[in-house]
Structure formats: structure tokens, C-alpha cells
Amino acid sequence: MSKSLSKRPPKTAPKPSAPKSSSSGAPVQQDPNEAPSIAKPLTRVVAILYDGMLILALLFLVGTVLTVIGTLLTMETGTESSQAQSLPTWYQNLVMTPAFVLTLVAFYGIFWRRGGQTLGMQTWRLKTVNNAGHLLTWGQSFKRILAACLMPLLFGVIGSLIGGSRTIMLTSAFLGLIFNYVFCLFNRRGLAVQDMLSNSITLKMPKVAHEGLWRGFKNRKKN
Fold first, then answer.
1. What is the pLDDT of residues 41-53, one digit of tens each?
2. Residue 31 and residue 33: Cα distance in Å, rounded?
3. Which residues partner with 127 through β-bridges?
4. How many CB atoms lie within 10 A of CB 90?
5. Could you give the count of Cα atoms lying within 13 Å of 177 in the half-sphere of its Cβ?
6. Burial 115-151 (b: 16+ CB within 10 A, else e)
7. Phi, psi (5° rounding) for residue 59?
8. Within 13 A of 129's CA, how many CA atoms are on the CB side?
């Protein structure tokens, strides 16, 4: 038995991995104590403003296409400005509004499912995952979007009942959106309203551990 033990090869220490390099080629030192943390509300709002410009462009495109289709299908077109008409209410409520909602769901759902990041979130190294640390499913993405819209909708209804004008309603809805992130300041863990209602969380990723958006798309596709 002693002979068999003596023939075993000595254990060797694992080879240290090469230090990661930045885009410029210089090695990046990673702080071993650094880890993903819950994103701050101001950073999240700035990322939303970044994404908002792209979302508005998408909604404008969808609205333009649906307006042209609706005009051709539901209204008689004239040659003078005095003959201009507005789209039927049923078309706006049953076709255009659901199309805008689906556009919003598709925008966030595709990015969250692929890499956990939208374009604005990647700029600020934010990543949205569920409480288990995995990328969101379509169901979880839809639930999170509905949770994020709850307070703006509630504030908008209250503003409409108080003032009645469209301006007051939209202003109230915007305040509801801000409330989602002001809530972080009073929550013990720093969670937003949509984090709590959807069992998901937005993290601030360390610089070295941060995965680029397109790499996240590729890795998700391979898996």
C-alpha cells in the first residue's frame, strides 16, 4: 500500500489566470472585494432617459405607420386641410394603444432576455436580473414593465380626477414614474417599486465583471 501511495504524482498548484486587459491593452486590476450592488436611483433614472430617446423614436415610427393604415382603412381622405379628420376612437383604443404597449414590452423584453441590459443600461453598467440572479423570462419582463407602470397610471388617474386636463394627467403620470425611484431612498435595501412587485432587481456591475451588450447577445444565443 505504501508503494502505491508513493507512485501518485505530487499535487500541483493551479496556474494563476492571466490578468484581464482593458480595451487599450493595459491589464485591469480587479478589487476582490468589489461585487455587484443595487443600482442607485439617480443612475437608473439617467439610464431611462438614455433609453427614452430610442423608445420615443420607435413609438413615433409605430404611430406613423398605424396612422397611415388607419386613415386608409377607416376614413375618407380629402384634398384640403378643412377635410382633415381624426382617427376613430375605437381604432386609437383597440389598435394603437395596444401596439404602443407591445412595442414597449418588446423593447425591454428583448434586451433583458438577451443580456439583462438595454443600451442606456449598458452605458451605466446596469443589469436587470431576477432574484435568483438569472436573466428575466418573457413573463418576468412583462410583469416588471406592468409593475413599473402601476404608479404612473395611479398618479395619472388621480391627476385626471383633480384637474381634468391632459397636461395635468401627463404631469401626474411623470411624477408617478419618479416616485418609483424616490421609493428607493426609503426602502431598506434600496429597491424600487417595480423591483419589489416583480421579484427582480437592477444591479450596478463592477467594471471588470461587466459584460458588453453585444457579447451578452452572443452568449445568450449560444446557450
1. 999 999 999 999 9
2. 5
3. 203
4. 9
5. 14
6. bbbbebbbebbbbbbbeeeebbeeebbbbbbebbbeb
7. -65, -40
8. 15
Alpha carbon distance 129, 113 (integer Å): 9
Contact 152, 177 (CB under 8 A): yes
Give the CA dihedral 54, 59, 61, 64, nearest 10 degrees.
-160
Say what angle helices 166-182 and 138-162 make with each other, to 10 degrees.
130
| Strand order across the 37-38 sheet | 37-38, 200-204, 126-130
What pTM, to 2 d.p., does this model score? 0.70
Query: CA-to-CA distance for 89 and 27, rounded, in angstroms?
Result: 60
Give tens-digit pLDDT for 133-167.
999 999 999 999 999 999 999 999 998 888 777 78
Task: Answer yes or no: is pLDDT of 122 > 60.
Answer: yes
